[in-house]
Amino acid sequence: MAEGGKKEENMAGRIRKLDETVVNRIAAGEVVQRPANGLKEMIENCLDAKATQIQVTVKQGGMKLLQIQDNGTGILKEDLGLVCERFATSKLREFEDLASVATYGFRGEALASISHVAHLTLTTRTKDDKCAWKVSYSDGKMTSPPKPSAGNQGTQIAVEDLFYNVSTRRRALKSPGEEHAKIAEVVGRYAVHNARVGFTLKKQGDTTTDIRTPPASTTLDNIRTIYGPSVAKELMEFACEDTKLRFKAEGYISNVNYSVKKCTFLLFINHRLVDCTALRKAIETIYASYLPKSCHPFLYLSLEMAPEQLDVNVHPTKHEVHFLHQDAVVEKIQQAVEAKLMGSNASRTYYTQALLPGAATVPSTVTGSGEGESEGTAKSGTKGQGEKERIYAHQMVRTDSRDQKMDKFLARPGGSKSKETSSTNNEDEAAGNNKVEGLEGEENTNKLTTESNRREIKLTSVLTLRQHYEEGCHAGLLEAVRNLTFVGCVNPERALIQHANRLYLANTSSISEEFFYQILLKDFGNFGLLKLSSAASIKELAMIALEQEASGWSEGDGSKEDLASYVATCLSSKAPMLDDYFSMQFDDDGNLCTLPYLLDDYVPSMEGLPMLVLRMATEVEWSNEDECFQTICRELAKFFAVPREQMDEDNDEEDKEDKKGEEVKEKKNKGDGEDGLKWTIEHVVYPAVRKTLLPPQHFAQDTTFLQIANLTELYRVFERC
């Protein structure tokens, strides 16, 4: 028995030839990595067939169906048996032909690879055929002889159930939405480069198309259609040629007025969509001196060179190419881009501010090197040197977001709420802890976390939550927030703000709540300490909250004492996590000692502290990490937000009259406090909001930003009067 086992062990280490099916599936995984790769290969086959119209139809991001149809030359019936054979091609005869290949699908691997990992059906008709021929393939072979079928001239390829027999590869694919986006990116790039060909992309069953470009259009028109008019209007035509290095480059590059967070680089070398890291970095280095930090350009380049200088056979997907004198070619193109950008300074937009009192302070367009006067609103500086565009009265903006008021530099109304307090021990002094006297909220201005000791958070849940609010930003409102001018407080909950020639009634409570929520995610795990001078009992805070009507307590929930004990036990058990990530420290007796420090010179209303403690124990989803962090941040954001006005819902008129008299006395006593809150809203909250808030989509749909006046419309009314 032992002898047989030893013989079997030796056989296991022998070198054996893999089964042909396994070999082909491994090779297919190299060529077709995702639906977009397979589509790229098929588009190139359509272009080789001299098609002028290419239509792509997908279902579930190409994983269920990926169909492409063209009106090219078609495939002869006699050649259908070789279509899905590996290394069967009409482009090469000998190895030396690779040195001068000028077509796309020259290796004959695309359709062969797809047939090994999907169900492939092909319908084709040539110009001389009386009917189309339909045939299905599996593992590179025809499953049945070609059958006559109805069809127009050209070829239609339907790929169904991609990676149905390679479960690991199928599970590694992204969501259908992301895969569809990658398909749209491939179609869009080929549509830009092949302006003479009409491209159409749509989802199966949809009546509308995601991409549609007409045949015989222009490159610039296709860029405008696919990437938007905001990109197209900022593009400059680019050309570069060198006879010594034997190359020619042309295309479109964005000027210095356009920038995005991610570089869009469309590179075609000898009409093949590829990527060249060296060229990309070289061009971005030039733009770095013209664009703001973390901003990038839009680039479309078509590079042509002698075929013998190019090695196209270095990557299974032909995504990368190598060519001779690469460093010299890259340097030449880099110099040409720099020269083009230097010559485009005449159309760059500058903003200036008058230095003398009484002079105009409205942003203006300054051409050339930036000389000129500030007058009117900013327009694109496309006029000649020294020319000024006429600004009409109804277009003028009377205020500027960069203006400042004197009261910002004076003491807060009712005395400064922000004062220095001496630390009681060396540890507090070293850490820069923020003191809060009782529940009144007196604090010093030191912050705990600095850039030098800031830690990097790599938790997937936190990164996902950050991504959600970044992707959900409303672009139109973002411009209004970044350039808002604070007009004044209507009350602590609402304020008037201005953007351009529009006046808005803004809900400060909703805005500040979203602002603090984003701060809690952005600075997650890096907060300073807002230290209470005397620790507050969690149980007592919970009892105070349960006495409030807003808690929603009823007798069916059990006794308040038991609920308060549960709140204290729950938060004490989560103390290490709350301390590490949210700077909420608890002592051994179940007392709350600190809160996170979120914004300089801002202390939240401590009246909401009992409800915060209660809601953190009852409303936070502690069992799921994503929901846990999200709900904690939401509850803390509600606590830190500017308080909302309390609506009086009492219908008893006598009680209202009694309360009204008490409110008058209370307002007299707290008048200074309300003035101080309004000062904080104007000089602390809104400047921070203007700098960092990313307004979500729902702000444009609810009454958070309510437009109440438009200078242009008002001007028309008064003009008629």
From TrEMBL:
Record InterPro entries: DNA_mismatch_repair_CS, DNA_mismatch_S5_2-like, HATPase_C_sf, Mlh1_C, MutL/Mlh/PMS, MutL/Mlh/Pms-like, Ribosomal_Su5_D2-typ_SF, Ribsml_uS5_D2-typ_fold_subgr
Classification via SUPFAM superfamilies: ATPase domain of HSP90 chaperone/DNA topoisomerase II/histidine kinase, Ribosomal protein S5 domain 2-like
Biased composition (Acidic residues): 647-656
PROSITE patterns for the chain: DNA_MISMATCH_REPAIR_1 (PS00058)
Assigned GO CC terms: chromosome; MutLalpha complex; nuclear lumen
Cellular localization per UniProt: Chromosome; Nucleus
Keywords: Acetylation, ATP-binding, Cell cycle, Chromosome, DNA damage, DNA repair, Nucleotide-binding, Nucleus, Phosphoprotein
Record flagged with keyword ATP-binding: yes
Family: Belongs to the DNA mismatch repair MutL/HexB family.
PANTHER family in the cross-refs: DNA MISMATCH REPAIR PROTEIN MLH, PMS, MUTL, DNA MISMATCH REPAIR PROTEIN MLH1
Protein name, entry field: DNA mismatch repair protein MLH1
Organism of provenance: Petrolisthes cinctipes (Flat porcelain crab)
